[in-house]
TrEMBL record:
It catalyses: (R)-mevalonate + ATP = (R)-5-phosphomevalonate + ADP + H(+). Belongs to the GHMP kinase family. Mevalonate kinase subfamily. This is Mevalonate kinase. One of its GO terms (cellular component) is cytosol. The gene is MVK.
């Protein structure tokens, strides 16, 4: 018995960080995925372990399932039909189970991801031995939502083999969940994100679950339809950072300067609302595509300025901004900042030569550039065989 799930990463067009404090943000899925395969052993395998293989990272973790049960079963019995938060007590037990696996120091940030895995697995599947294999096209810790894609793909694979979802076993190819199933899956993925991020807004798991383009505020989403073909250059500064620490830093600044920061968050809210309305405005209205793009560029620059106010820019991000400005192109960071990825709008009429020149200029500074399809499907599963 085997199921494979894939969940997309995301870009945030406007509103990261401020969305944690109640402002509106706009995000889109991208066609780079995290894949999770779940397989239960057959009796002849004679395997009583829960195994997690992180293929890209060449890491494998394994626990005798009886040991996990021994440690966790005294702490309550989670109900997979209701996404439940991991208690502080349980988090400590999970952290100890992860610590035993001796993750190499250089990869220690993965520990929170492995804890999230243990929480989601035991909450949804209980104490069954299984092998879970993870691969990803997303750079980890770069602002493209790898943590959320991991939690969403994992929740999808786990729920696919539960009584909570109905799956058409005769279906060929990638398969979507029903709307109410997606709602439960998204809630579970959010619980995983909480273990990794500390205080996530929920935007990343939501866009990875439902796909497309969304406007998100205080936990609720509005699907939006873009009438503007958006092309973004994504530049990975390759400067590593950790979302949890950056989100905590913004919260600390908010405690120190509550009044000033509330104006910053309100300004971001207005920027996101305006951005969403431009993207959705009908083709052939008062503004031409280039005029709309100019407005979007200005909003991106304003949002970037406010992200600097929040203290989440970085010297490498500033280098990308200066480089793209030489070509009159606007950029902003995406995700938590502090390094990671930067978005640059590539206007529809931009010549291929300029796009090539800005790309090679960025690459000569050691950055990695790529484009990705924006606004595709959210999480999907594939049953049986390879895909
Ligand atoms: N494929 C994966 N396997 C295991 N853990 C992962 C994977 N992808 C992400 N994670 C977890 O998410 C963390 C990175 O999340 P985060 O700092 O939010 O950055 P981002 O979501 O922008 O990539 C990793 O340190 C790890 O704990
Ligand atoms: C900074 C934030 O707005 C987005 C974080 O995205 P990422 O983990 O850097 O991909 C946090 C959140 O909304 O939960
Ligand atoms: Mg993340």
């Amino acid at each position: 018995m085997e199921v494979k799930a894939r969940a997309p990463g995301k870009i945030i067009l406007s509103g990261e960080h401020a969305v944690v404090h109640g402002s509106t943000a706009v995000a889109a899925s991208i066609d780079l995925y995290t894949y999770v395969t779940l397989r239960f052993p057959t009796p002849s395998d004679d395997d009583d372990n829960l195994k997690l293989q992180l293929k890209d990272l060449a890491l494998e973790f394994s626990w005798p399932i009886g040991r996990i049960k021994e440690e966790l079963s005294g702490l309550g019995c989670p109900d997979s039909s209701i996404a439940t938060s991991c208690s502080i007590e349980t988090a400590k037990v999970l952290a100890a189970l992860v610590e035993e696996q001796n993750i190499p120091e250089a990869k220690i940030t993965l520990a929170s991801g492995v804890s999230a895995f243990l929480w989601l697995y035991t909450s949804i599947q209980g104490y069954k031995p299984a092998t879970i294999v993870v691969t990803s096209e997303l750079p980890i810790g770069s602002g493209l939502g790898s943590s959320a894609a991991f939690c969403v793909a994992l929740s999808a694979a786990l729920l696919a083999f539960s009584d909570l979802v109905k799956i058409d076993l005769s279906h060929q190819g990638w398969l979507m969940f029903a709307e109410d199933e997606l709602d439960l899956l998204n809630k579970w993925a959010f619980e995983g994100e909480k273990i990794i991020h500390g205080r996530p807004s929920g935007i990343d798991n939501t866009v990875s679950t439902y796909g497309n383009l969304i406007k998100f505020r205080s936990g609720s989403l509005t699907r939006i339809k873009s009438n503007l073909p958006l092309k973004m250059l994504i530049t990975n500064t390759k400067v590593g950072r950790n979302t949890k620490a950056l989100v905590a830093g913004v919260s600390e600044r908010t405690l120190r300067h509550a009044n000033a920061m509330s104006f910053v968050f309100n300004a971001v809210d207005s920027i996101s609302e305006e951005l969403a309305s431009i993207i959705q405005s009908p083709i052939g209205d008062d503004l031409s595509v280039p005029q709309k793009e100019e407005k979007i560029e200005e909003l991106m620059e304003m949002n970037q300025g406010l992200l600097q106010c929040m203290g989440v820019s970085h010297a490498s991000i500033e280098t990308v901004l200066r480089t793209t400005l030489k070509y009159k192109l606007a950029s902003k960071l995406t995700g938590a900042g502090g390094g990671g990825c930067v978005l640059t709008l590539l206007p529809n009429l931009l010549s291929g030569t300029i796009a090539d020149r800005v790309t090679s200029d960025l690459q000569s500074s050691g950055f990695q550039c790529f484009t990705a399809g924006i606004g595709g499907n959210g999480v999907e599963i594939y049953l049986g065989g390879s895909s």
